[in-house]
Specification:
Structural class: alpha/beta
Largest sheet: 6 strands, parallel
Shape: globular
Bound molecules: adenosine monophosphate
Order of helices and strands: EHEHEHEHHHEHEHHHEEE
Number of strands: 9
Strand order of the largest sheet: 1-4-3-2-5-6
Strand content: 15-25%
Length: 282
C-alpha cells in the first residue's frame, strides 16, 4: 500500500492504474478510523480493482467555534487499518497541499438543502464538504465513491452535487455501523467521558424507538418527533439540537411519513455534538 502526501503522487498512481484498465474506488475520511470507515473501505475493495482512502481533516468544513484543532488524529493506526483492509493508496495531505493560501473557489449548493438539519447550526459546513469532496473527485477521478448513511445529509448533498456537476461518479451508500450497545460509531465518541458515553445511548435508543413507531404505523411526523424529543429530554446530559423528519432526497421538512423520509437528530452530550438517523424507505 502506498501513502501519498501530494496530489501529484495520487495522480501518477491513478494514471498508471487507468492505463491498465483498472477501476478505482474512493473513500473520503477525516481519519481516526473505526469500524464505520472500515465498512466503507471493505465495500470499495470488494467493488473496485483499486481503493484510495483519503485521510484529511478538512479545515473548510469546520466553523470558527468548532473542533478543528481538537479533532482526534492517529495516522499510524489509520494507515495500518487501511493496509489490513486491502486499500491500495492512502492520500494524507497537509492542508497547504489542498488549499493555496489565497484559495477562494468553493462548490456550494444554492438551495435550502445544505441549510436544513445540521446546516442550521453549521452554516458553512456543507460548502466545505462539497468543496473538499469535489477536489478529491478531481484528484482521484474515481469510478465509485463510498459514503456512510451515518451522515445522511452529507450523502444526499454529495449525490446532488454529483448530479448537478455531472461528475459521472457512482455514489455508494453504506449502512450505519454501531457499537454493540447501539451507539453509532463516530470519531467524536472519543470525546465522551464514561458518564457521557452511557448518556449517549439516548440517541440510538431514541432512533430505535422512532423506527418502531413508524413500523407500527405512525405517520404523523409531529407525534413521532415529539415522542423522540421527550425521550431525549429525559436524559439529563443530553441537549437537543434538532429532531426532524425530512424528504430523504431534498431534505425538505415533511409533515407525514410518506415516500422516502429521513428521520434525523443531532444531540449534544455535554459539549460533544452527536448525530444519528434512520431512513424510512418509500
Ligand atoms: P468522517 O471521517 O467522520 O468524515 O467519515 C468518513 C465517512 O465514513 C463518511 O462517509 C461517514 O458517513 C462514514 N462513517 C462515519 N461513521 C460511520 C458509521 N458509524 N457507519 C457508517 N459510516 C460511517
Amino acid at each position: 500500500m502506498e501513502i501519498a502526501a501530494t496530489i501529484e503522487q495520487v495522480r501518477a498512481q491513478v494514471r498508471a492504474w487507468r492505463q491498465k484498465g483498472l477501476t478505482v474506488g474512493l473513500v473520503p475520511t477525516m481519519g481516526y478510523l473505526h469500524e464505520g470507515h472500515a465498512s466503507l473501505i471493505r465495500q470499495s475493495v470488494a467493488q473496485c480493482d483499486r481503493t484510495v482512502v483519503s485521510v484529511f481533516v478538512n479545515p473548510t468544513q469546520f466553523g470558527p467555534n468548532e473542533d478543528l484543532e481538537a479533532y482526534p488524529r492517529d495516522f499510524d493506526h489509520d494507515s495500518n487499518l487501511c493496509q489490513s483492509l486491502g486499500a491500495d493508496l492512502v492520500f494524507h495531505p497537509e492542508a497547504s497541499e489542498m488549499y493555496a493560501p489565497d484559495a477562494a473557489t468553493y462548490v456550494e449548493i444554492l438551495s435550502d438543502m445544505p441549510k436544513q438539519l445540521c446546516g442550521k447550526t453549521r452554516p458553512i459546513h456543507f460548502r466545505g464538504v462539497c468543496t473538499v469532496v469535489s477536489k478529491l473527485f478531481n484528484i482521484v477521478l474515481p469510478d465509485k465513491a463510498f459514503f456512510g448513511q451515518k451522515d445522511a445529509q452529507q450523502l444526499a448533498i454529495i449525490r446532488r452535487m454529483v448530479r448537478d456537476m455531472s461528475y459521472g461518479i457512482e455514489i455508494v451508500s453504506c449502512p450505519i455501523v454501531r457499537e454493540a450497545d447501539g451507539l453509532a460509531k463516530s470519531s467524536r465518541n472519543t470525546y465522551l467521558s464514561p458518564a457521557e458515553r452511557q448518556a449517549a445511548l439516548v440517541l440510538s435508543k431514541t432512533i430505535f424507538m422512532g423506527q418502531d413507531m413508524v413500523q407500527n404505523g405512525e405517520t404523523d411526523v409531529h407525534k413521532l418527533t415529539q415522542a423522540m424529543r421527550d425521550a431525549i429530554s429525559r436524559e439529563p446530559l443530553a441537549r437537543i439540537d434538532y429532531v426532524e423528519a425530512v424528504n430523504a432526497v431534498t431534505m425538505e421538512p415533511v409533515a407525514q411519513i410518506h415516500g422516502a423520509v429521513l428521520v434525523a437528530m443531532a444531540v449534544y452530550i455535554g459539549k460533544t455534538r452527536l448525530i444519528d438517523n434512520f431512513l424510512v424507505e418509500a
